[in-house]
Design a protein that fits this description.
It is a single chain. Helices cover 45% and strands 22% of the residues. The relative contact order is 0.09.
């Protein structure tokens, strides 16, 4: 009986050990599965994080791309704007001056007037040649800007200066010329634009300025008219979104940068004066009727009607 009892105890012991072994194996498997799940969650988290990061990176890339497209469209609209150059080919002599050197490129397009029509047209030509199309000064400015820059990489960039123009015949007495300058500086992502407007009296052979058209001290009233237009167009979602009102200094510095039409005046402002470079427009048009209270009333003013 004792031997039989020992045998039964041995069987129970073996069964117990067998169950314990199975339990240990099951527990180990459960831990491994849990680990796999955890690892799976970690992998999933990493993938999600990577996706979010990728989307954020894409968003960061899209915004500069959108701005680049907007800048190019804004500049293209200016360049493609129609003027009266073709209609008055006999009066206007189209000139070009190109300097192509290792460090920079200068490309100037500008008009001269045919002096066979009137000798006083030479006053216009002399001013353009001697003052405005001053290539030597432009070269000096480029070289000076390179010397001031302490970046070694800047030496590998080519400076580009490009000037073109729009010309308008207001009437038999007056022409308006707008010069737009594209400046591409070292390391800049986009060129910047600046403007100069000139109005020339063909009969008298003289340039006319703001004071020749507008009454003395009218700048404040003109500024109010301009800012009301900017605010209205911005609120209606027109071209002026993100633009801001002009200051008195802005108008003072740019009050002569306008071209004339038989029905309106168009004032031009440099990049980032009225609107950021990536949106808005460079100019603001004002109907002559709105300006009647501040226009000079005398015969020499071709805008009087």
């Amino acid at each position: 009986m004792l031997v039989e009892s020992d045998g039964i105890n041995s069987k129970h012991m073996m069964k117990y050990l067998y169950l314990l072994l199975i339990l240990l194996i099951f527990t180990a498997c459960k831990k491994d599965n849990s680990k796999d799940v955890i690892n799976g969650n970690e992998d999933s988290f990493s993938a999600d994080t990577l996706m979010v990061d990728s989307i954020q990176n894409i968003d960061k890339d899209i915004k500069p791309l959108d701005k680049t497209i907007s800048i190019e469209l804004k500049q293209k609209k200016l360049i493609d704007k129609k003027d009266d150059r073709e209609e008055f080919q006999s009066l206007i002599i189209d000139k070009k001056y190109v300097v192509n050197k290792k460090d920079y490129t200068i490309n100037f397009n500008y008009p001269l007037l045919n002096t066979t029509y009137k000798p006083t047209h030479s006053n216009f030509n002399d001013f353009i040649n001697e003052y405005y199309v001053n290539v030597s000064k432009t070269e000096s400015d480029i070289l000076e800007s390179k010397q001031l820059c302490d970046s070694i990489a800047a030496e590998t960039f080519r400076e580009e200066r490009y000037i073109d123009y729009k010309i308008y015949m207001v009437n038999d007495q007056l022409i308006s010329v707008l010069f737009y300058k594209e400046n591409f500086y070292s390391g800049a992502m986009h060129p910047s634009y600046s403007f100069d407007g000139f109005n020339f009296d063909l009969n008298r052979g003289v340039f006319m300025t703001y004071e020749d058209f507008f009454t003395e001290g009218s700048e404040d009233e003109l500024l109010v008219i301009m800012n009301e237009m900017i605010s209205k167009k911005r609120d209606t979602g027109d071209l002026y979104y993100d633009c801001w009102e002009l200051s008195s200094d802005d108008l003072f510095n740019g009050k002569n940068n306008f071209v004339l039409n038989d029905t309106y005046i168009e004032f031009y402002f440099d990049d980032c004066v009225m609107c950021p470079s990536y949106t808005g427009t460079y100019s603001i048009e004002i109907e002559l009727e709105e300006l009647l209270p501040i226009l000079k009333k005398y015969d020499a003013n071709p805008l009087v009607f």
